[in-house]
Amino acid sequence: MMNKVVYPGSFDPITYGHIDIIKRASKIFDYIVIGIAKDNNKTNFLFSETERKSLIKNSLSSIENIEVKIFDGLLTDFVKQENSNIIIRGLRVLSDFEYEFRMALMNRKLDDEITTMFMMPNEKYTHISSSLIKEVASLGGSVDDYVPSEILVELNKKLNENSK
Ligand code: ADP
Predict the structure, then answer these.
(1) Spatial separation of the C-alpha atoms in residues 136 and 15, rounded to whole Å
(2) Most CB within 10 Å of its CB: which of 3, 19, 81, 103?
(3) Cis ω for the linkage preceding 13 (within 30 of 0)
């Protein structure tokens, strides 16, 4: 049986933290579906879903056993649709724990067949999030160590457009 997992998130934009988790997962599991969630509580995205999808694809072109999809509705429905029963989430710092713990238990309540597994990135990336990177970049700070160069270009382009 193929071990297929779903790695959901906003990825606005994808960072080396996400990439670290995806690389680790790609060595353990047969296939990873990266799911860009359409409708969660976050509203002010910098990139559209389609832009986020192509940014992810471009930065992961060297990994073969992955696919990027946009989904809306319940994550557990999406996981089932993909014929998977494993959700991967990244854990950075203790403050992630409470939210992730609640989500994992709610998802288990919604579908007991689905298990959430947590992975930790390299410690170089435990303090970064897409929002922190957007904030620092928008203020002119360097985020070169946290996003691939092709993302950096698009990030700066977008921030410039928005400041006009
Ligand atoms: P969400 O809005 O669902 O939290 P994100 O794109 O912010 O979406 O994150 C998706 C997943 O990736 C989450 O499990 C999050 O904890 C994890 N993640 C985000 N940044 C990092 C990082 N720097 N290192 C490891 N995991 C991360």
Answers:
(1) 13
(2) 19
(3) yes
CA-closest residue to ligand 1 atom 20: 129
Whole-number pLDDT of residue 153: 96
The tokens 């435990």 sit on which residue? 126
Tell me how far the alpha carbon of residue 164 lies from the centroid of ligand 1, in angstroms. Answer: 29
Task: Report how far ligand 1's centroid is from the alpha carbon of 80 (Å).
Answer: 21
pLDDT < 50 positions in the chain: none
Helices 149-163 and 49-59 pack at an angle, to 10 degrees, of 150
pLDDT tens per residue, range 19-67: 999 999 999 999 999 999 997 666 789 999 999 999 999 999 999 999 9
pLDDT at 25: 97
